[in-house]
């Protein structure tokens, strides 16, 4: 006999949900044994004083989930379901404390993070207008799975843009759009030889290094000299793939001169299946001279894989990056037996509209001036506060630079004090990939993209206390 009560109050669940939950519980705890016939819909409705529709909705859900089965003209019966191994919830089934997340309270903090951009200056209304225009014009596209490399018309727009701004030579067919540079790197490793040796700049991009290691790839590191990746170490290491940031080395800020760029291109051309991955992550922002063309623009033998992103120029949250594949790797990509769709179609269409309408270049021009002003005020405040105890490097491009301090404190000690001062920043030690060593003098990476004008003096004052304060 099946008994249950129904709560008819306004705050209770819908009646069909109550019936569903109670029968489900009875099946699971075996108070309704397997193959037991449950009351007919009308019988249960009369017993509970509810509508037949409510009972029918509950029975149909239980049927769909496999708690009941139906026999034509006989009714509904309890399905035979295996019992759980544990009657009680086993210890430790709740989420452990070390895995729980809590949004940090950053009120009162000042950010010197290199990972952020100034979202307050993003032309959100213009972007939404572009979204609306793109959706109205290409609404049918949103109901389809697009090309695994991204929409062709969007790739056309990106191809024109990077040709004009970075000198990159490409056809739309060579471009692959993806949700972030790391995702594209992972995809790229599937196109390159499995036993390829990847060499990264030291210091360099730790997340990319860890990604390659997690993928089981052979990795090596190449130290920097005054021109960028050391050719001497490259000749000794003999890698197959170089990963470099020539326009603004991350994190040191070194800009690779044309002499070293030609040396790298000659190295790549010496042997088959050698490639250079050029990560052009913040090339839009150059302050003391015109923008330097991409390494790929000098490549005569199609050995450079150019990678760009809109994370620094627009917003990281848009998750739109791209790479330009040389023809041989593009052929490998097209032989893949599965498609990878990773980038939001509406975001792609909005980006195309944003670029084609001129809003993108307008935004870049505005932000370049804004970041230049912030950078100059920050440098002036640092030099005034620290005097001869500070050396600045790599400050003529990008959204961060390196500061080296003549002090007795370690980077670790400075970071701990900076955290106590509510300063968000990183030290060079974070980007030492393999050596694990520390420099004689502490070096900090100071990003200024999220730094407000009114916070510069206070931020520098807190930084001074972290470096030299008692």
Automatic annotation (TrEMBL):
PROSITE patterns found in the cross-reference section: HTH_GNTR (PS50949)
Cited Pfam families: Aminotran_1_2, GntR
Protein family per UniProt: In the C-terminal section; belongs to the class-I pyridoxal-phosphate-dependent aminotransferase family.
Source taxon at top rank: Bacteria
Segments forming domain HTH gntR-type: 13-81
Official protein name in the record: GntR family transcriptional regulator
Species of provenance: Bacillus nakamurai
PANTHER family, sorted: HTH-TYPE TRANSCRIPTIONAL REGULATORY PROTEIN GABR
Cofactor requirement: pyridoxal 5'-phosphate
Record InterPro entries: Aminotransferase_I/II_large, HTH_trans_reg/aminotransferase, PyrdxlP-dep_Trfase, PyrdxlP-dep_Trfase_major, Tscrpt_reg_HTH_GntR, WH-like_DNA-bd_sf, WH_DNA-bd_sf
Single Gene Ontology MF annotation: DNA binding
SMART domains reported for this sequence: HTH_GNTR (SM00345)
Keywords: Aminotransferase, DNA-binding, Pyridoxal phosphate, Transcription, Transcription regulation, Transferase
Coiled-coil intervals, chain numbering: none
């Amino acid at each position: 006999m099946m008994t249950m009560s129904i709560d008819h109050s306004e705050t209770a669940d819908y009646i069909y949900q109550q019936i569903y939950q109670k029968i489900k519980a009875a099946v699971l705890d075996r108070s309704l044994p397997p193959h037991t016939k449950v009351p007919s819909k009308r019988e249960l409705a009369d017993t509970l004083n509810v509508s037949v529709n409510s009972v029918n909705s509950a029975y149909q859900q239980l049927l769909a989930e496999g708690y009941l089965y139906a026999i034509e003209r006989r009714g509904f019966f309890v399905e035979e379901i295996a019992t759980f191994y544990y009657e009680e919830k086993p210890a430790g089934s709740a989420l452990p404390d070390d895995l729980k997340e809590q949004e940090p309270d950053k009120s009162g903090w000042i950010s010197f993070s290199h990972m952020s951009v100034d979202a307050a200056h993003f032309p959100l209304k213009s972007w939404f207008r572009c979204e609306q225009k793109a959706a109205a014009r290409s609404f049918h596209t949103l109901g389809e799975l697009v090309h695994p490399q991204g929409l062709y018309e969007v790739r056309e727009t990106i191809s024109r843009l990077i040709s004009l701004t970075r000198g990159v030579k490409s056809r739309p067919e060579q471009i692959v759009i993806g949700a972030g540079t790391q995702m594209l790197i992972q995809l790229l490793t599937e196109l390159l030889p499995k036993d390829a040796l990847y060499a990264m700049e030291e210091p360099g991009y730790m997340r990319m290094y860890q990604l390659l290691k997690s993928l089981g790839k052979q990795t090596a590191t190449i130290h920097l000299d005054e021109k960028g990746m050391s050719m001497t170490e490259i000749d000794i290491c003999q890698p197959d793939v170089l990963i470099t940031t020539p326009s603004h080395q991350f994190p040191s800020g070194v800009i690779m001169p044309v002499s070293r760029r030609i040396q790298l291109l000659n190295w790549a051309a010496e042997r088959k299946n050698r490639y250079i991955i050029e990560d052009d992550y913040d090339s839009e922002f150059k302050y003391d001279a015109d923008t330097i063309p991409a390494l790929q623009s000098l490549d005569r033998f199609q050995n450079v894989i150019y990678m760009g992103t809109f994370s620094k120029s627009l917003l990281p949250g848009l998750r739109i990056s791209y790479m330009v594949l040389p023809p041989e790797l593009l052929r490998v990509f097209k032989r893949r037996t599965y498609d990878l769709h990773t980038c939001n179609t509406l975001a792609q269409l909005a980006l195309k509209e944003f670029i084609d309408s001129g809003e993108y270049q307008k935004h870049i021009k505005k932000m370049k001036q804004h970041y230049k002003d912030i950078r100059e005020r920050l440098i002036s405040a640092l030099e005034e506060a620290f005097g001869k105890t500070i050396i600045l490097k790599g400050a003529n491009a990008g959204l961060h630079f390196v500061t080296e301090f003549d002090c007795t404190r370690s980077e670790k000690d400075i970071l701990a004090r900076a955290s106590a001062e509510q300063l968000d920043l990183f030290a060079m030690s974070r980007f030492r990939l393999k050596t694990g060593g520390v420099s004689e003098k502490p070096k900090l990476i100071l990003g200024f993209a999220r730094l407000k004008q009114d916070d510069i003096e206070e931020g520098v004052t807190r930084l001074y206390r972290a470096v030299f304060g008692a």
